[in-house]
């Protein structure tokens, strides 16, 4: 798995700012933007079949046209690759029910308000590093 991030966000300006933050602070080699969950999910299906180009990080907006964040999570959770990806919700929603609902998805590792701030980025960095180390350790363990 590479240092690839998906930003699933329908607001273009928010997506551009988020991409810049990811490139600078999380050192993502490549950041791909998708304007809705359906396009991103279709890309993930393709990459899962190819077993290549799977992101290690997804930043997901909840309120989008075509396929919203909740629908994306429901579909993505069914894919075997879901456990390999750190998903963080990045939303403008301040509704406590959204935060609680996100906690029910074991693939969601964090819930952040837009725009990304330094504390959120630092937390994500720690989590992605730990998840990456865990994945590498699992690969080493199964190779022995």
What's the number of structural domains? 1
Topology pattern, helix = H, strand = E: EHEHEHEHEH
**Spans of at least 5 consecutive residues with low confidence:** 135-144
Rg measurement, Å: 14 Å
Overall mean pLDDT:
83
Architecture, CATH level 2? 3-Layer(aba) Sandwich
User: What's the number of helices?
Assistant: 5
- Content of β-strand: 15-25%
**How far apart are the termini?**
20 Å
What CATH calls the topology is Rossmann fold
Strand order of the largest sheet: 2-1-3-4-5
What kind of sheet is the major sheet? 5 strands, parallel
Shape: globular
Q: What is the CATH level 1 assignment?
A: Alpha Beta
Helix proportion range: 40-55%
Helix and strand content put the structural class at: alpha/beta
| SS elements, strand count | 5
Q: Name the CATH superfamily classification.
A: Response regulator
Topology:
Layout: E1 4-8, H1 12-25, E2 30-34, H2 37-50, E3 57-60, H3 69-76, E4 86-91, H4 96-103, E5 108-113, H5 118-143
Parallel strand pairs: 1-2, 1-3, 3-4, 4-5
Polypeptide structure, described:
- The chain has five helices and five strands, in the order βαβαβαβαβα.
- The C terminus is likely disordered.
- A five-stranded parallel beta sheet has the order 2-1-3-4-5, sandwiched between helices.
- It has one domain: Response regulator (Rossmann fold).
């Amino acid at each position: 798995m590479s240092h690839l991030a998906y930003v699933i966000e329908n607001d273009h300006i928010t997506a551009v700012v988020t991409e810049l933050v990811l490139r600078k602070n999380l050192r993502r080699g490549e950041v791909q933007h998708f304007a809705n969950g359906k396009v991103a999910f279709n890309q993930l299906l393709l990459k899962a079949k190819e077993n290549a180009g799977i992101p290690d990080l997804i930043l997901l907006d909840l309120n989008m046209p075509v396929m919203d964040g909740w629908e994306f999570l429901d579909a993505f959770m069914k894919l075997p690759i879901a456990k390999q990806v750190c998903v963080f919700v990045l939303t403008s929603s301040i509704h406590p029910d959204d935060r609680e609902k996100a906690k029910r998805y074991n693939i969601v590792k964090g819930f952040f308000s837009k725009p990304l701030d330094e504390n959120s980025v630092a937390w994500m960095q720690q989590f992605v590093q730990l998840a990456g180390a865990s994945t590498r350790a699992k690969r080493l363990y199964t190779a022995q």
